[in-house]
Amino acid sequence: MAPPPFSMYSPKTPEGDGGPQTAPVFGAGPGDDPGYLASLRGGTELGRMRLMMLALLAAPLLILAIMPLIVEDGRGDVPPWIYLPLAAVALAALLAGPRAPRPMAPGADPGVAARTALMMFRQAVLLRFALAEGVILLGLPLAMVAHSELVFVAGFVLGYPLLVWLALPTRSGIERMRRRLESRDAESHLWAVLLAAPASPLDSAGTGP
């Protein structure tokens, strides 16, 4: 049996890993976004992604709160070079993050394009999150080396705004990713699949063997 057509992006298709079970809402656009908080109650792919990212955004705040228990603050002079790795990693995230996702190839069937766009969108959000969070996490070992809490705070100040800008799926952030997906004249139908309503129990039962 031939492998699934989307295995190059993910071992599972959206239908198999919690994505929307109903057809994409073709024709939907950013104007149909109910808003960040309202989407959390809708059960759509967009709502689930936004809820997940809110939980992930809380993790650096927790690290910041317990950081004084981890870092032995010597209150001494901090060598200026200790901040250079933070600046370098932040610059790398700033340059590399907006390059994800990669552009889609044009000419795909609308249903195929929508499912492909969803997988590429998920991967891009998580990649952007990892790049920005790396700036924050790097500050912890550097703070331990320098015996200064300020080093971690510097990493947090550099990384957390990048985290919000790159990874939080706001309406404007999704639009930037959609334009990136469609930069080779492809039609991604990204909003259509993000705003697809979840399947009802009767729909799910009707698709069983």
Number of helices: 8
Order of helices and strands: HHHHHHHH
Major pleated sheet: none
Total E-strand runs = 0
Give your account of this protein's structure.
It contains eight helices and no strands. It is elongated and about 60 Å long. The protein is mostly helical and 209 residues long. Helix 2 (45-70) runs antiparallel to helix 5 (149-167), helix 3 (84-96) runs antiparallel to helix 4 (110-146) and helix 3 (84-96) runs parallel beside helix 5. Helix content is 58%, strand content 0%.
Key words describing this protein structure:
single chain, mainly alpha, 8 helices, 58% helix, 0% strand, disordered C terminus
Compact description:
This protein is mainly α. It is built from 8 helices and no strands. The model is unreliable at 1-20 and 201-209 (pLDDT under 50).
Topology:
Blueprint: H1 36-39, H2 45-70, H3 84-96, H4 110-146, H5 149-167, H6 171-181, H7 190-194, H8 201-206
